[in-house]
UniProtKB/TrEMBL annotation:
Residues 7-112 form the Calponin-homology (CH) domain. It comes from Trachymyrmex cornetzi. One of its GO terms (molecular function) is microtubule binding. GO terms for cellular component: axoneme. Residues 213-223 have a biased composition (Basic and acidic residues). Pfam families: CH_2. GO terms for biological process: regulation of cytoskeleton organization. The keyword Transcription does not apply. This is Sperm flagellar protein 1. It comes from the Eukaryota. InterPro entries: CH_2, CH_dom, CH_dom_sf, Spermatogenesis_Ciliary_MAP. Keywords: Cell projection, Cilium, Flagellum. The keyword Transmembrane does not apply. Residues 213-238 are annotated as: Disordered.
Length: 238
């Protein structure tokens, strides 16, 4: 862990940072220092034997930023008794202003305590660093675009899969409804047949009852005629 250090004010820290010949502008501490590249450049100026700048590439990806910090932590900071915790590395890679300011403040205090002077980089090295950073920035941007494209493709694939699943479920619902409709139509046909059968039976019964009633009426009339005829003959005999 980084040990306790004396405090320096923010103005002094900014003046110190502004006086360092970085390979790229350091206008925003949280954004520009989040990938560990500029911190490596600071360390290279004061502790050149410990730092190989080509090990640290500009990055937009959080994972690559963390890898830069882990390497810087293992190869440089640990040897300078400034080892970072995993939580601090996570904060630095995610652009925590508090974490960046604390690290730079402790680095500035260490430089002052060690009494080391800034090693002026050779012009060739500066040009090489700038060129490397431009190339790495371009590669990082291309990588980011590819990741974004891949993410878009993944999103589209996810949406396609969800829509396909939804379509499958709707087809299953439609199939179930079609079966129900077929069953209901069959049931309705059976009911229609039963209704027709019952209606025919009722009509037949009505016809038979009507015939029976008519037949009974005729029989009654005939019986009455026979009775009257019999009575008439009896009366005539007397």
């Amino acid at each position: 862990m980084i040990g306790d250090t004396a405090q320096i004010d923010n103005k002094e820290l900014i003046e110190w940072i502004d006086g360092i010949p970085f390979s790229r502008p350091a206008r925003n501490l949280t954004r520009n220092f989040s990938d560990a590249v500029l911190t490596a450049e600071v360390l290279k100026l004061y502790y050149p034997r410990h730092v190989e700048l080509h090990n640290y590439v500009p990055a937009n990806s959080i994972n690559i930023k963390k890898e830069n910090w882990k390497m810087l932590n293992r190869k440089v900071l640990a040897k300078l008794d400034m080892k970072l915790s995993s939580d601090t590395i996570h904060q630095l890679a995610n652009g925590s202003q508090d974490a960046v300011e604390k690290l730079l403040t402790k680095l500035r205090v260490k430089v002052l305590r060690d009494g080391v002077e800034m090693h002026k980089p050779k012009l060739k090295d500066v040009e090489s660093n700038i060129l490397n950073n431009h190339i790495c920035d371009a590669l990082a941007n291309v990588t980011t675009e590819r990741i974004e494209d891949a993410n878009d493709e993944n999103v589209q694939r996810t949406i396609y899969t969800e829509l396909k699943q939804e379509l499958r479920e709707k087809k299953e619902v439609i199939s179930t409804l079609n079966h129900k409709i077929t069953y209901l139509e069959s049931s309705m046909k059976l009911k229609d047949l039963r209704i027709s059968s019952l209606a025919a039976q009722i009509l037949q019964n009505a016809v038979e009852m009507d015939r029976s009633a008519k037949s009974q009426s005729i029989d009654d009339a005939r019986a009455k005629l026979r009775s009257r005829s019999h009575n008439f003959h009896e009366a005539k005999t007397y």
